[in-house]
Amino acid sequence: MSIDQPTRRVIALAPMPPEKSAYALARYSRSPDSIEDSLRWVHGHSSEKFWDQFYFDYGHASIADLGHVIICFEDISELAAIRLEDEPLWDGQAKSSRYQNFASGGWFVPDSIRGTETEGTYHGILRSLAEIYRLLHQPLTQFISEREPRPESMKPADYQRTIAARAFDVTRYLLPLAARTNVGQVVSIRTLEKQITRLLSSQLPELRSIGDELKDACQRSPVNLWGELCGQPGGAYEPLAPTLARHAKSNDYQASVYQDLARYTKDALRGTGLDQPASWGEPTPVDLIEPHDPLDELVTTLLYRVSHAPYRSLLAVVRTWAEKQKQEAIDVAMSTRGPYDELIKEFRSGYAFTFDVLMDIGGWRDMHRHRRCQQIQQNFTTVHGYEVPPPLVQAGLDQEYRQAMDAVRSDIEQLKKASAEGSLYATPFGFKVRCLFKMDFAEAEYIAKLRSGVKGHWSYRTIAWLMKQKIAARYPALGDRIQATSPDIEDTLTR
Tell me: the pLDDT tens digits for 298-331? Predict the structure, then answer.
């Protein structure tokens, strides 16, 4: 055996159609050829047969992680944006409610209420929210600027943007889930296929429509404006993921499992009082749940997802059940599962730190970006009440806000009788949502440290600080090592 001179190379490849790049890299792992030779080979062969055989027939799903796409969604609802982003391996950005004025952006109207009397009620709720959003912005801006005058070292334009952003941090509590937004994402084609399937399986018509449009976009030539701007030759470009998109379809298991669980949970909890908020006790923003039996955790998580009750209250009920009844709950969650269907995320258990968090929807949207932890979100509702932003109280403007939110809550409750879908979209960011966050210590430390910083919104700053405090109270040796910033420490002009 001869000793040859090293031939090490590091090669950056220009973007290419994701299905082709994934095919080339998959072949590269099974061949002695250079990457250039692999690319030449793939260029001369159809990738469709490869994807049909290896991805769909043999189930080698990881090869689809090798190709990535950029997809943009414009003028979708905030609710749709939240659901788009509900992927553990998702990367992207959405239109910022801190740096953009949503007052004139309009809102989504469900097709189910168009042309009906209900549509008038729906528009009435959203117009009232938009009006108070506009009315509060100017006095808030003035109040914050008087409280925090511009430092000489800060440019006037930067100062004005910062003050406006802090005002929008307050008025965003009035934005409904129907508010229109834009989302840009970069995902692997494996995640893309899962996303399309999940959207097509949704109970919300808007999400199913977006799923159809996303599927179609992946089978057409993509927009290549950047190439044109760079002087690249024009002409049609290969679709991004035609084979994966063609195979993606609605999944019966995903489409039915949560409805099945909701019916089961309603019957299973009958007589416990947990369907009434009065039985939940004093609400707490952050509850650190002590480690407990894995079976109890799984069953409680399944019930939690389709209820509005706190995790601790549900756990107390589950602990009284015989093992047979616990098995029944699991059976319901698996009864329609096909041989190739992944278990729903509620089955992902065993994390050391489980937080039951109750916070405003706007702040939760920011926490939702932490995808290293497992998040089990309950449905949006008005039953938990709403948060009152501290700056409104400090500025003496909270009365107008409270009156508007009380009126909206009453109107939403009435709207729900005619259209549950419409009432969901009409719900403002200021109302609270309950969500379970399961994580390891590294993620708990990261969230507490990052989200408690002075640059952040006071809503999630408070939650992050309480997470650190809860850990420190139970595990001092761990909690004391978390470098978090108390929400009492403020620096309004830090961005």
Answer: 999 999 999 999 999 999 999 999 999 999 999 9
pTM for the full predicted model: 0.92
CATH 3.30.70.3180 fits 252-386+430-479, yes or no: yes
Domain boundaries, the chain: 15-66, 68-231+241-251+388-427, 252-386+430-479
**What average pLDDT does the segment 441-451 reach?**
97
Q: What is the tens place of the pLDDT at every residue in 196-219?
A: 999 999 999 999 999 999 999 999
Residue burial 411-450, b: 16+ Cβ < 10 Å; e: rest? bbeebbebbebbbbbbbbbbbbbbbbbbbebebbbbbbee
* CB of 261 closer than 8 Å to CB of 347: no
Separation between Cα atoms, residue 242 and residue 48, nearest integer Å:
8
3-class state of residue 109 by DSSP: coil
Q: In whole angstroms, what is the distance from residue 115 CA to residue 103 CA?
A: 24
From 2.40.50, 1.20.58, 2.60.40, 3.30.1360, which CATH number describes the 68-231+241-251+388-427 domain?
Answer: 3.30.1360
Strands (E), 95-214: 180-188
- The CA distance from 25 to 66, in Å, is 7
Q: Which of 226, 227, 215, 377 is nearest to 311 (CA)?
A: 377
Which pairs from 203-207 meet CB under 8 Å and 24+ separation? 203/255, 203/258, 203/259, 204/79, 204/80, 204/83, 204/421, 205/110, 205/111, 205/112, 205/421, 206/76, 206/77, 206/79, 206/80, 206/108, 206/110, 207/80, 207/83
Report the alpha-carbon distance of residue 318 to residue 121 in Å, rounded: 40
- Count of residues for the chain? 495
CA distance 416 to 405: 16
**What is residue 188's three-state secondary structure?**
strand
Residue among 108, 71, 78 at smallest CA distance from 95: 78
Task: Find, among 488, 429, 358, 359, the residue nearest to 98 by Cα.
Answer: 429
- Dihedral sign from CA coordinates of 168, 170, 172, 174: negative
Q: Which helix (H) or strand (E) holds 341?
A: none
